[in-house]
Each structure stands twice: as C-alpha cells, then as structure tokens.
Amino acid sequence: MARILYGVHGIGHGHAMRALTVARHFPEHEFLFLSHDTGAAILGQEFPVEECPNPPTVVKGHRVDVIATLIASLKVRCQSRLYLRQVLDLLDRFQPDVTMTDYEYFLPRASRQAGIPCLSIDHQHVITCCAHPVPWTQYPSYLSTSVAVNSLFSRASDYLVISFFQVPVKSGVRAKILPPLLRESVLQRRPSLGGHVVAYQGYTTFKRFFPFLSAIPSKVMVYGFNEDRTEGNLIFKKNSETGFLNDLSSCRYVVCGGSHTLTSEALYYGKPVISFPIKNAFEQFLNAFYIDRLGYGRYFTGFHPRPKIIPAFEANLDRYRANIQTGNFCGNEEIFTLVEKFIREKKLDY
Question: Is residue 350 included in any domain, yes or no?
C-alpha cells in the first residue's frame, strides 16, 4: 500500500471528478486530498480532504474577468509562504510515498522542496507541452496563458496530459498525451440516438443563449441552472448526474461552453458539439478550436449566436458523427497503468 497526497484545483467539477476517478481505481492505496471550493466538497464525500486555496479564474458575462482574476490570484500568492508552509507540514505529517496534482499550485512546489516525486494529471498542460496552429488573433491569449501555466502550475516531476485531441509533445518535454479519463458512470451507459438536444453551461451567463436555444427545432434539455421548469422547447432540469448522463448519452447533439470534461464525454457517446468557449479562457478556446478542426462540430465566439447557424450545423450531423467515430475518447486503462507505474517506480519513462 502507498500513501498518496493528491492536490486538486477546486474551481469547477472537472478536476475533482478526474482525481476521484483515479482514487476510486486504487482502493489498495491511501489517498489524502488537498483542495478547496467545489473540489473539496466533491472529494470530501468519499475521501479525507485538507483545505488550501489556489489562484482562481473569475468569470463574468461569459468572459474571464482578467483584472478580477489577477487581483484574486495576487491575494492567494501574497499568502503563498504561509500556505506553502502548511503544505510542507502536511507532507511531514502524512509522509506520502508520492504526490499527484490536477492543476494545483502549492503541492508540486512543496513536493519539489521536500524531494518527493509528483505526477501531474490534467488537461491544461496540453497548452504548454504541445504546439498548436491557432489563429493569429488568439496568439496573445495563447502566449499569456502559456506563461501562466508554466509559471504557476508546472513544478511536477512528470506529466500525464489528458486530451480528446492528440497532438505531438514538444521535444524534450517530460509528458505523455493520452485520451480522456472518463468517470465510471459515463462508461456504464451505451449511447443511443434520441430526438432531444442537451445544453449545458456552468455559468449563469448562459442566459444570453436562451434565444438561440429556443430556435433549435427540438426539445432542449438545459442543465446548469439547477431548476425544474419548461419554457417553450427548453426543459430546465435540476442537477443530477444520473439524469444528465441519461440525457447526454441519448441526445442528438450538445451545446456547451469549452469544457474539456463535458466535450470528452459527449464525444465518447458519439455526439457532435456546438461550442461557445468563454472569452479570454484560452483552454476553452483551444478545445473548441479542435472540435471544429477535427470535424466533430463547430465553435462560435459571439455572445449572441445567430439562430441561422442551426440549420447548417444540423445538415452536417452525419459527417460530424462519422468523424467522431474515428477518434479515441477513453484512455482509462492506459492512464491507470501509468499511474500504477509511477506509484511503484516514482517516475515515468518517455
């Protein structure tokens, strides 16, 4: 049995669900999590969690509020010595054999200082570990995000980068690119083709898209607002993993932001995607860009999408589905094999 301290970025559900999937697969090991906010709430239902903040991303009006994000991050970093000392003390008390991180700030730094191997498992490092042919208009965001990822979240000793799009790793970078890591409840369902569409957005700014959703000539199951009501063809549903995955696995296609977790789950079920990435969130743009580039769907960057794009998108659904069938959207077994190797040998081979 190994003792594993696992740092998890707490904003949103994706990081915590990925870490939870890893920990559930290795019941023979002892896991202690370091997280905050939503991540701590999710992980704390099954595993012990120590609270520690992380530099956050502030979203307002379907865009990253750069100034508010910088201010919030500075507040955390001004206390970084205190938090780092707390994590070092936790390492001393828990005595982990290895540590792991999903886009967490303090644990990789503390692990490096303490000489403990640290494995990063996340999607964000696809930005820095690989080169991308993004439009020139996105280069300022590409460069600034790369600097942020490198300076804030790149102190692990090894990297498993999870991504629904497979691109070569840059020469000399200690990372492996693998297909998505899917939660068990996703794998338990077989896809079918129903008549409805699923729409999801984790931020309430998605209200701007209601006129667009109302123009879709199908029932639209709307998630993210945690309410039960019907408004025309829009059927709002309360948060429910079972209900959401049942609707997702049986829908015609998906309308969402640029979340890697949801996009990966939709593609695993063979569902085309219309993506509206959050402005100034380059990781979301990159996901949306590859959806379009690989022929899995379309992306749009406007705050008020025009309903006229719907007929063109629906006319190409068969082509999108055929392209999706050529991809690999589940890397669970390979990921678990490499995690087990890291726990045993405290390093990965490249």
Answer: no
> What span, in angstroms and rounded, lies between the C-alpha atoms of 276 and 258?
6
Q: How confident is the model over 200-235, as pLDDT tens digits? A: 977 655 567 888 999 999 999 999 888 899 999 999
- Give the pTM: 0.93
Query: Residues 212, 234: contact at Cβ < 8 Å?
Result: no
Ramachandran category for residue 62: left, alpha or beta (phi over 0 → left; psi -120 to 50 → alpha): left
Q: Which residue has the tokens 């039960």?
A: 228
Q: What are phi and psi for residue 174, nearest 5 degrees?
A: -85, 80
Other CB atoms within 10 A of residue 275 CB:
27
Q: Are residues 86 and 131 in the same domain?
A: yes
What's the CA gap between 8 and 31, in Å, rounded?
12
- Please give the Cα distance from 148 to 128 (Å, whole number): 10
**Residues 6 or more apart whose Cβ sits within 8 Å of residue 288:** 258, 275, 276, 277, 299
Domain of 272, CATH number, reads 3.40.50.2000
Range of the domain at 304: 185-324
Asked whether 123 and 260 are in contact (CB, 8 A), the reply is yes
